[in-house]
Design a protein that fits this description.
The protein is α/β, with parallel strands linked by helices. It is built from eight helices and seven strands.
């Protein structure tokens, strides 16, 4: 299995491809209709000089969007926007921490939407996380110096091209 690096277009593209090719995944989320964005806060040690936002939009379990957005796009299109440090997202994606617990403890900031609404969506958290973790995911703190330098360069190029 090819490793995909955190917060890269390849990660989201492959995750979307796998989700769409897995009928069981859609069935588990068939009652979910939501537009959710995730802000990964800047962290120079993780090669994130600025925040980056990725979004997952579902309509009755159908994945409509899994992509990066600018802040303006996120606030215009999403129902929910959550923000956390890269390390917090890593722990949640690796299932070392519970999403709802971190939301309630304030480790995840809700910038758009209501906590009550977000807690209603918590029923689907496990399945949304499954969508985002179907690939071998590599985080910057797990990269060698060479991998990190390449990642840093890719992130700068991607961010400049996207304006994300």
């Amino acid at each position: 299995m090819t490793a995909h690096q955190f917060c890269t277009p390849g990660w989201l593209k492959e995750s979307a491809r796998i989700y769409k090719a897995t009928p069981d995944a859609k069935d588990k989320l068939k009652k979910l209709t939501a537009k959710i964005c995730y802000r990964v806060k800047s962290d120079p040690d993780w090669c994130l000089r600025e925040d980056i936002i990725f979004c997952s939009f579902f309509e009755k379990g159908e994945l409509r969007t899994l992509n990066f957005f600018t802040e303006d796009e996120a606030f215009q299109a999403a129902e929910y926007l959550m923000a956390a440090t890269p390390l917090t997202w890593k722990k949640i994606l690796r299932k070392k921490r519970e999403f709802v617990t971190d939301l309630m403890l304030g480790k995840i900031d809700l910038e758009l939407g209501t906590k009550v609404g977000m807690l209603e969506l918590a029923l689907y958290t496990h399945n949304i996380l499954e969508c985002l973790t179907q690939v071998d995911l590599q985080f910057p703190d797990e990269m060698s110096a060479d991998e990190l330098a390449t990642y840093r360069s890719k992130m700068e190029t991607f961010r400049h091209a996207k304006g994300a």
